Amino acid sequence: MKIVLEVTFRMGGVSYRGHHWEDGALVFEFERMGDAFIQVLSTRKVEIDAERMPKKVLVELKTKDGGKVFEAFERDGVYLAAEP
Q1: Which of 2, 22, 29, 54 is the most exposed place for a label (fewest CB within 10 A)?
Q2: For residues 28 and 60, is the Cβ–Cβ distance under 8 A?
Q3: Residue 24 to residues 7, 32, 35, 58: CA-CA distances in angstroms?
C-alpha cells in the first residue's frame, strides 16, 4: 500500500533521509543541517510502499540544535503535517 506524506517546513534546506517503524508508528526522517536557511515555507512530498497501515505517522526533523518530532494527520488518503 502507498503512504503519502506532505510536510510544510518553516525554512528551506530540508532533505528526506528515510523512514522507519517505531511501535506501530511510521516515522519519516528529515534533516536540516547548517547555519543559514531561507525563511520561507517549503513543502516536501514523500510517497513510500508500506507493508501495513501505521497506527500514526510521525515526522522527525533533525537539526544542528537537536530536533523535533511532530504528528501528521490523514485527510483524503494523504498524511499532512506542518513544522511547529
Answers
A1: 2
A2: yes
A3: 20, 26, 34, 11
